[in-house]
Amino acid sequence: MPQSSPCDHHQSEQPRFDEYDALIFDMDGTLVDSMPLHLDAWEITSAEFGLPFDRAQLNEYGGIPTRKIVTMLAERHGMTIDVEAFARRKVALYLARIDDVRVFPAMWELVRQYHDKVPMGIGTGSTREHAAHILRQTGLDAFISVLVSADDVVNHKPHPDTFLKVAEQLGANPANCLVFEDTRIGIQAGKAAGMTTLLATEGTLQRV
């Protein structure tokens, strides 16, 4: 295992990650600033469907597909909701602003620094279509070729399947992979995969 111990840092003091077999990133809220757009869409749709909305709670569900979250919340509140209609409306609101998504500057720096030095992949709870659009729109697709989306696994985060599949496609040993995540559920998934995990908050990294 790598001996370096990543900790809180700013752009001027980047830790070194070149001893890892692979760097694996969550996308929404970790690499790109898309979570506010998701949450705005959730807030509007929840109001329209009468579903109680808690922005902080929804943020923590990052990495879980929309339909699963709606089903879970409806059961919790004892409500009957047309999950497909809810998901269609939420997705439509999000897609109307998807081209506003940008890469966090510190994460851009990291991706460019390790491009062609350490294999990199993305493990996201977004659909492949939406994730691929963001990668093309931001230019990340030129740096990160492996993408595992919600469409590619049955068991989503906090299960380890997403990150394990990224490692498999990169030909990397999971025990020597580093996961970047912005939510508790994502960190749980990384740990369940036997990987080292870093909490990424708008580009600031913390070992967890």
UniProtKB/TrEMBL annotation:
<keyword id="KW-0378">Hydrolase</keyword>
<dbReference type="InterPro" id="IPR023198">
    <property type="entry name" value="PGP-like_dom2"/>
</dbReference>
<dbReference type="InterPro" id="IPR036412">
    <property type="entry name" value="HAD-like_sf"/>
</dbReference>
<dbReference type="InterPro" id="IPR051806">
    <property type="entry name" value="HAD-like_SPP"/>
</dbReference>
<dbReference type="InterPro" id="IPR041492">
    <property type="entry name" value="HAD_2"/>
</dbReference>
<dbReference type="InterPro" id="IPR010976">
    <property type="entry name" value="B-phosphoglucomutase_hydrolase"/>
</dbReference>
<dbReference type="GO" id="GO:0050308">
    <property type="term" value="F:sugar-phosphatase activity"/>
</dbReference>
<dbReference type="InterPro" id="IPR006439">
    <property type="entry name" value="HAD-SF_hydro_IA"/>
</dbReference>
<protein>
    <submittedName>
        <fullName>Beta-phosphoglucomutase family hydrolase</fullName>
    </submittedName>
</protein>
<dbReference type="Pfam" id="PF13419">
    <property type="entry name" value="HAD_2"/>
</dbReference>
<comment type="similarity">
    <text>Belongs to the HAD-like hydrolase superfamily. CbbY/CbbZ/Gph/YieH family.</text>
</comment>
<dbReference type="InterPro" id="IPR023214">
    <property type="entry name" value="HAD_sf"/>
</dbReference>
